[in-house]
Design brief:
heterodimer, A: Sortase, Chain: A, 8 strands, 28% helix, B: 52 residues, mainly alpha, Class E sortase (chain A), hydrolase activity (chain A), Sortase_dom-sf (chain A), membrane (chain A), hydrolase (chain A)
Chain lengths: 264, 52
């Protein structure tokens, strides 16, 4: 009743008030729209980049020129061909051009993760966001004396290193080089084993030095280092995993036993 | 703003609802394809490398 009596007064607000309410309404609608767009950005970043990235990286691995892994004759009952371990001097390929995919990485501990491409360079626009795992330019190539340093996203963009914290001492990390130019070190398996891991500040470049943690020293060992972000969804620190070469084998000789165990 | 848009959409309510759905989908598609990828590098997370 009181509402009805006061209604005529409300029906004719002053011109100034009408404009003010109109502006306020538009501002409110814009803010709501902005909130919805932020939610949409989260959906894109946390879900869609993974969908797109996984699809694109699987495509890169599928299209990668490389010789097939030999399979035993159908009559053989011995199961898949296990590549004999080679502990002699491994062949090492020449460094490739920026954004060229030259190898793949497989980690049996990350059961269910696909084989990921490894490409030259570690900038986000041309390598990490689109091609998955990146190789720090100037660091050793697979099997080489020194440190093969690789970077990858731990969250978003298909998150190739999402499960990096699951790695334990002795876990194999398997690199398989592609055919590239067909020179030494191409179409070769390199099996590394995890030795240690650490959390460092982004400025601590010594983790990718030829001898990890000791910049300036000349290497006598063949290391592999993975770097990714830490904590998840943060750029505050880096999670770093070090590994050392266990053995190598030509792809033509078969498949490393580490990968076959994971498959069975 | 949205009231203005609603008043200026043609047709009965059902057609307007469909038109709004198409407009929303178009805006989201543009965001997913161009806007969000352009904004992402400026977000303070996702850096995975050591060095500058």
């Amino acid at each position: 009743m009181s509402a009805r009596t006061s209604a005529p007064a409300r029906r004719r607000p002053s011109r100034g008030a009408r404009v003010a309410y109109g502006v306020l309404g538009v501002v409110g609608e814009l803010l709501i729209t902005l909130g919805v767009l932020v939610l949409a950005f989260l959906v894109w970043q946390l879900w869609w980049t993974d969908v797109q990235g996984n699809r694109a990286q699987a495509e890169v691995v599928r299209e990668l020129p490389r010789i097939p892994v030999p399979t035993p004759a159908p009559t053989a009952s011995s199961g898949p061909l296990v590549a004999p371990e080679r502990h002699d001097e491994p062949p090492v390929m020449a460094e490739v051009d920026h954004a060229v995919t030259f190898a793949t990485i497989q980690v049996p501990r990350w059961d269910g993760e696909p084989e990921r491409p490894v490409s030259e360079g570690v900038d986000r626009e041309t390598v990490l966001d689109v091609l998955g795992v990146g190789h720090y330019p100037g660091t050793a190539m697979p099997g080489g004396l020194g440190n093969v340093a690789l970077a990858g996203h731990r969250t978003t963009f298909a998150k190739p290193f999402n499960r990096v914290a699951e790695l334990q001492e002795g876990d194999p990390i398997v690199l398989r080089t592609a055919t590239v130019d067909g020179g030494p070190g191409t179409d070769t398996w390199y099996v590394y084993r995890v030795t240690s891991w650490q959390v460092v500040k982004p400025s601590q470049t010594e983790v990718i030095a030829p001898v990890p943690g000791k910049p300036g020293e000349s290497p006598t060992e063949r290391y592999l280092t993975l770097t990714t972000c830490h904590p998840m969804f943060s750029a505050r620190e880096r999670y770093v995993v070090h590994a050392v070469l266990d053995y190598w084998a030509p792809v033509a000789d078969g498949t490393p036993a580490e990968l076959l165990e994971g498959a069975s | 703003m949205y009231a203005w848009l609603w008043r200026h959409l043609p047709g009965p309510v059902l057609v307007r609802v469909l038109l709004v759905a198409v407009l929303v989908a178009a805006v989201l598609a543009v965001c997913f394809t161009w806007v969000f990828p352009a904004v992402a590098p400026f977000m303070p997370f996702n850096d995975t490398t050591v060095g500058e």
